[in-house]
């Protein structure tokens, strides 16, 4: 089960990155071009945030139930032991903490953009919050230690 979840979790990141770039680009062009907030803008934002929520579910299953690098590492080594090892600390603390923060930022941006009263505000809030979420995500993807495409 661990291997399957890890593969799906790994591949889902690419959907998140694609939808993030598309949603940010479309919102930025809408903001700068003072264009109406369209159905496509809404769909891109919903897709970005939806895939983030799916990824959070998969990551949560890995962290709390199946991965030896998550909660199991904390239970085995204790928090002091986890914090003393950079690799273990990354997986058991840093990765999950920053990714949860990214989910909160993306969802907040989606909610605020939906509640905004003008199209310009909708685009602006989407750009700001989605960009911050994307930067957080990019900062915690283990680019150097994980294969880009698991199979």
Description:
By secondary structure, this protein is an all-alpha fold. It has one domain. Helix content is 83%, strand content 0%. The radius of gyration is 17 Å and the shape is elongated. The two termini are 14 Å apart. The mean pLDDT is 94.
List keywords for this structure.
151 residues; mainly alpha; 5 helices; elongated
Give a quick summary of the entry.
The protein is an all-alpha fold and 151 residues long. It has 5 helices and no strands.
- The secondary structure category is mainly alpha
Ranges with pLDDT <50 over ≥5 residues?
none
Report the principal-axis shape: elongated
Percent of residues in helical segments?
Answer: over 70%
Percentage beta strand: under 5%
Total of DSSP H or I helical runs spanning 4+ residues = 5
On the 0-100 scale, what is the average pLDDT?
94
The H/E string reads HHHHH
Report the end-to-end length measured between terminal Cα atoms: 14 Å
**How many independent structural domains?**
1
Radius of gyration: 17 Å
| Biggest sheet overview | none
Number of beta-strand segments? 0
SSE topology:
Elements: H1 2-32, H2 39-66, H3 71-84, H4 86-115, H5 119-140
Helix pairs in contact: 1-2, 1-5, 2-4, 3-4, 4-5
